[in-house]
Amino acid sequence: GAGVSQSPSNKVTEKGKDVELRCDPISGHTALYWYRQSLGQGLEFLIYFQGNSAPDKSGLPSDRFSAERTGGSVSTLTIQRTQQEDSAVYLCASSKDRDQPQHFGDGTRLSIL
Amino acid sequence: DQQVKQNSPSLSVQEGRISILNCDYTNSMFDYFLWYKKYPAEGPTFLISISSIKDKNEDGRFTVFLNKSAKHLSLHIVPSQPGDSAVYFCAARIGGSQGNLIFGKGTKLSVKP
Known about the structure:
The complex is a heterodimer. Chain A has one domain (5-112): Sandwich (Immunoglobulin-like). In chain A, 0% of the residues lie in helices and 47% in strands. Chain A contains no helices and ten strands. In chain A, strands 2, 4, 5, 8, 9 and 10 form a six-stranded mixed sheet that branches. Chain A has a four-stranded antiparallel sheet with strand order 1-3-7-6, with no helix packed on it. In chain A, 35% of the residues are buried. Chain B is mainly β. Chain B has one domain (4-96): Immunoglobulin-like, CATH 2.60.40.10. Chain B has no helices and eleven strands. In chain B, strands 2, 4, 5, 9, 10 and 11 form a six-stranded mixed sheet that branches. The A-B interface holds A 4, 6, 31, 33, 35, 40-45, 48, 50, 56, 59, 91, 93, 95, 97-99, 101-107 and B 4, 6, 32, 34, 36, 41-46, 49, 89, 91, 93, 98-106.
């Protein structure tokens, strides 16, 4: 498809386990963002990738969170030693550049038991 | 402290009438504002944007108004249709930043036939 693709769509895991979330941005989009939405809240910025530049990690809530973007395309968000407060919908977005609207995937709903 | 505020969690409008969704912000460094629409279990969909150098932008049934002195923007939908029923998020970007967006908590719009 032509849109942003995220997998898995749902993930249920036990507290303390590591999880990996994947994002395939729109082809040709150089900017990639990760956000999360907790219940009843707006979207919270996590991390931003632009081309080959060093990522902006200023939104990551703790050092348990990390992300990488290989080959300037696919990105993975990794959460180590998950906690119950990590339960949220994790959304990925991409844009042609910072001045263009961001287009979102449908998200990964993460539930920590 | 919330920089982007949507003070109405919900709004109900009759089909064919105007829907007005409001958003207030506190950071005078915001240079770009967007509205997104979100259906359940889907990612946000970009609707319309406005640069801080403008006070109005129109796209079909959707018009966004920006009042910089009041730090207020609004989205007008006219005429409203039942398919417009969704959660609407206001978002803003800080000028000179990497481009990540700051979101409000959303307003759930219900358009009744």
